[in-house]
């Protein structure tokens, strides 16, 4: 099951299969596609897992073991990669809230997000090599973009699993929060990113020509929200004199 809720303009997508450690089966892919359709227009998107044991533990081996041909394996990988691509290209900021371990395909889902926030007791690893396979959902390329090609090869080639603190140190995770304050922490971050300027910043840092970046700034400058915010700042400064 994949749940979709809205919280102050933020869409929260929860992979809710705790009995399978939130592993992804073919039906889960269909539900993810439907949930992403439903999240269109949200000011921010959060992807998380149910419970506190797993964010996503990878593909559901029990169900995916029925895939036995090269063509079917390619079709499965292509479908899930498209879902991860949709996360990466979502117009608003996307946060992966790592409530539990993100392993194998789960790590691939995590790096499709713009920002990764982790509870301090989780682990993350591209450990597909333990099954004599490799990341196929776009995770290898995204991992390399985050930590560099050599470190990505070291991690995905050996299947090394990292503690949250080390993942933060190398830039694989952006923010580590204590478990007791984790839920409120990621929700607070999502709300703070649920604004038009953050979406424009995402678009610009994804790569647009300089003139287009300036046009984005100018469009925000003349909007009512800018003048209202500027007035509040000027009034506050005047009262502090």
What can be said about this structure in brief?
With 241 residues, the chain is an alpha/beta fold. The chain has 11 helices and 10 strands.
Explained architecture:
The protein is α/β, with parallel strands linked by helices and 241 residues long. The protein folds into two domains: 2-193, 2-enoyl-CoA Hydratase, Chain A, domain 1; 208-239, no CATH class. The protein contains eleven helices and ten strands. The chain has helices at residues 26-39, 61-64, 70-88, 105-112, 139-147, 149-158, 164-169, 182-193, 196-205, 210-221, 224-240, and strands at residues 2-7, 10-15, 44-49, 54-56, 94-98, 101-103, 115-119, 123-125, 161-163, 175-177. The strands form two sheets. Strands 1-2-3-5-7-10 form a six-stranded mixed β-sheet, with helices on both faces. The chain has a four-stranded mixed β-sheet with strand order 4-6-8-9. Strand 2 (10-15), helix 1 and strand 3 (44-49) form a beta-alpha-beta unit. Helix 9 (196-205) packs antiparallel against helix 10. The radius of gyration is 19 Å and the shape is globular. The termini are far apart. Keywords: Fatty acid metabolism, Lipid metabolism. InterPro entries: ClpP/crotonase-like_dom_sf, Enoyl-CoA_hyd/isom_CS, Enoyl-CoA_hydra/iso. One of its GO terms (biological process) is fatty acid beta-oxidation. GO terms for molecular function: enoyl-CoA hydratase activity.
